[in-house]
Design a protein that fits this description.
The chain has about 210 residues and is mostly helical. The chain folds into two domains: about 50 residues, Homeodomain-like (Arc Repressor Mutant, subunit A, Orthogonal Bundle), CATH 1.10.10.60; about 140 residues, Orthogonal Bundle (Tetracycline Repressor, domain 2). Helix content is about 70%, strand content about 0%. It has eleven helices and no strands. The chain is globular, with a radius of gyration of 20 Å.
């Protein structure tokens, strides 16, 4: 069955290119409007497709949304693991920097998760058990540092949530960041001072010498 005629099909790009355009358009629309506020018409228009063309490649917005949401969550599991649990300064510093890089490099993907939470998190029911398990592994590592006297006693779960909030803000409040730094919308942000200050803040709060 040939794809319907339209702007992208006339150029006869490969299926992968069309799907990449659809996913990129969906990321932007979902990050701005969430699942309920996004229409397949809006995704199609942003991808340079007609609505019939879009439905040749995807059944509906729900399956595309779930794919992208799970992509975000999988990336967080893989990228933000504690790779080496021996040195808290190195591990926490690296964790914070990776979280910041993700917020700066993929703000729309981060905001898809935030929009889902703001909409009630109904599509995250099957994610939470795994998220708690991944988080518990980090908590166990932190509690091990505390038991060995490598950092001061604290609630490891709350520490992690503080780190998530402070790093995620650079995706969710990107406009505010630029305004406060006096930067125009298209200017690059020097993230190194931000990372340096945040790492020092967290390590100092944990009683760790960086």
């Amino acid at each position: 069955m040939p794809a319907p005629d339209g702007p992208l099909s006339r150029a006869r790009p490969g299926r992968e290119r069309i799907m990449a355009a659809i996913r990129a358009a969906a990321v932007t629309e979902f990050s701005l409007h969430g699942l309920k506020g996004t229409s397949t018409q809006a995704i199609a228009a942003r991808a340079g497709l007609t609505k019939p063309q879009l439905h040749y490649y995807i059944a509906g917005k729900e399956e595309l949304y779930e794919e992208l949401l799970m992509q975000v969550l999988h990336a967080w599991k893989v990228v933000f693991s504690f790779e080496d649990a021996s040195d808290p300064a190195t591990v926490l510093g690296g964790y914070i920097r990776k979280k910041l890089d993700h917020a700066f490099d993929s703000p729309e993907m981060s905001r898809i998760f935030t929009r889902e939470i703001l909409d009630g998190g109904r599509n995250l029911d099957r994610y939470w058990p795994n998220a708690r398990a991944w988080t518990q592994k980090k908590i166990d590592v932190i509690n091990g540092w505390i038991a060995r006297g490598q950092m001061r006693p604290l609630d490891a779960r709350i520490l992690l949530m503080h780190i998530w909030a402070m790093t995620q803000s650079y995706a969710d409040y990107a406009i505010q960041t630029r305004v406060m730094l006096g930067l125009p919308p298209d200017a690059p942000i020097d993230r190194e001072p931000i990372a340096r200050e945040l790492v020092a803040f967290v390590l100092n709060g944990c009683g760790i010498e960086g």
